[in-house]
Specification:
The chain contains six helices and six strands, in the order H-H-H-H-E-E-H-E-E-E-E-H. The protein is an alpha+beta fold. A hairpin with a 5-residue loop joins strand 5 (133-143) and strand 6. 35% of the residues are buried.
Length: 176
């Protein structure tokens, strides 16, 4: 990793956490390995890097493909749960339609057997909102014996997303 990349990581993370305009998906994807490496491990577990790449990418099926056939994805910020690869891929597709530049920047990972805790910055710009958002998020990934995600639980504050976005607390996304 170059000195320039190493120096840019704290600046990108600080901008994201301060509510500054969202970091581009390309920049956050480039820092996934570097940001994680500087915190808890030499490199993130492969599934974490793949998960972040899938969130930062544009193919919703890439996210669904990381799960077991009966995998469960729970977004606790909005209180929804999806079962199976197709529903999980559909959730990513909806996020891509609703949030410009939706992405995660991995800050740290912690592994305990088949459970991985991923600390990230979740960011993007809700379509129609006056401002972008960048909020802390913690994800719990439970893996099966083959390294696929059996369960994903995303923990973040929807209230903070709406506040940073300049939207009222009772805002709901348009139906699609």
């Amino acid at each position: 990793m170059s000195r320039v990349t190493r120096a840019a990581i704290p600046l990108i993370a600080a901008a994201a956490l301060s509510g500054a305009p969202a970091v581009t998906a390309a920049a956050s994807a480039a820092t996934v390995s570097a940001a994680t490496a500087s915190h808890t491990q030499p490199c993130p577990p492969r599934i974490v890097a793949d998960w972040a790449r899938a969130w930062n990418g544009t193919d919703p099926r890439a996210l669904g493909a990381l799960f077991t056939a009966r995998g469960v994805y729970t977004d606790l910020g909005v209180g929804v749960t999806f079962h199976g690869r197709e529903e999980i891929s559909g959730w990513k597709a909806r996020a891509d339609r609703l949030i410009d530049g939706v992405h995660v920047t991995v800050r740290a990972t912690h592994r305990d057997g088949g459970r991985i805790t991923v600390e990230t910055v979740y960011a993007g710009h809700l379509k129609g909102a006056p401002e972008a958002f960048a909020v802390p998020m913690t994800t719990l990934l439970d893996l099966d014996g083959h390294g696929r995600i059996a369960s994903d639980q995303d923990h973040y504050s929807l209230a903070e997303v709406l506040t940073q976005s300049g939207l009222p607390a009772d805002w709901t996304p348009p139906a699609s």
